[in-house]
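Hi all, a correction to my earlier message: I attached the wrong file for Alpha-(1->3)-arabinofuranosyltransferase. Here's the right sequence:
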Amino acid sequence: MLRKLFDPGDLTASQVVKLVMWPLALVTAADMVFYKALPGHHTNDFKPVYTALDAFLHHAPVYTANLSSVDPHYLYPPGGTLLLAPMGLFDEATGRTVFLLLNLFAAILAVHLLLRMFGYTSRSPLAPVAYFALFLSEALVNTLTFGNVNGIFFLAEVGFLALLLQRRNVPAGIVLGLTIAIKPILAPLLLLPAVRRQWSTVTISLALPIAATAIAWPLAADPDRYFVHNLPYSLQVRDYYNSSISGFAAYYDVHPVATLLVRGLLAITVAISLWLLWRYYRHQELFFVTTATGVLLTGEFTLSSLGQQYYSMFLFPFLFTVVVKSSVLRNWPAWLAIFGFASYETWLLFRWPAFGRNLEYSRATFGWALLLIVVCCVLTDRYLAARREQRLAHGIDPAHLAPDFPTPDRRPIDIRPAVPPQPRSTQPKGSDQNPIPGQVVEAK
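and the right structure:
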């Protein structure tokens, strides 16, 4: 064993990657859990949640917080309170530990499901790289350190996408509807089943939050106060812990006209990207769904009233598309943007505190905005090149693309082959000419 360990003989590139990356991923995970997550942080998202759940279980008023402070507030609706109520059965310390472990295992399982979606197994060299990136990310570290629910929502997002691709409409609607009932951060994903005409998914996703609120209403002491006290507050733009364009502008006192102009321009890039994705990539279902998810959610974080950096966990399905040959992320500006919002490193410089503070407070905002711009530029450039070369009828992918890397271990979740839209045939019946490349010819 020792001889094999120190003199392993000929190794493939994938074996070398696994030998290097699995130890790094596991040690990073241990450091994140035991050094950062379990000790906690002065920002405690779990405490107001536990206090509200305990009050709900004892039929006491839930929505009583002073919203003028900068402390974390409980903003979940009555239906979400009902769904989270079992966590209030523990004491606070035990509940926080259980909640932390649930989010940790949910995030790990989400990455496992993502690997399977893209056709990879745990034996692939992509697996340790993905887990290393997850454990090192600001999103997971602060989700667990603060005691937030993002890890469970990450698993729900990946589960929803997998079910959507498999055309399991009812389960997909249930998963997305339960997340919307707690907090609507994944609500923009309703556009995906809508454009794919999976209407039962849309209906169930919208009906479940309404049903949860209706059930919770007679069980809560003050459900109406949520709609007049907490909901208006959650829709306001705040100037702290807010990396959206509006939050950035509020913190730095940017003129409202300039803020509106920037938001409008970024909204246009989102619209262009989504249109090009739908028009030319909807038949590549896995790529279309995951890339559109990234554009929708990045647009939400950037353009809505509230965008917090650890929401970037929900962009992992989009980041996985870098292994797909049609990816829009195979360029260095995209990964400069990703480093801006994904890294746990801080830029609070000791020698230049004011400059460092500005870098730290703005890096997520600029990272999200730059990512939207890069995606729009890549897709637009592909479209213009295809139009110039008169090959729009066959898609906008460049003629020569690097293959999927690494090679998938199994078939990805994609129920239809990646066939670009074809022009109508002008051949007469019975023509012996060859069919268009990629066209399926049925036997008669």
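Sorry for the mix-up. The chain has a mean pLDDT of 89.
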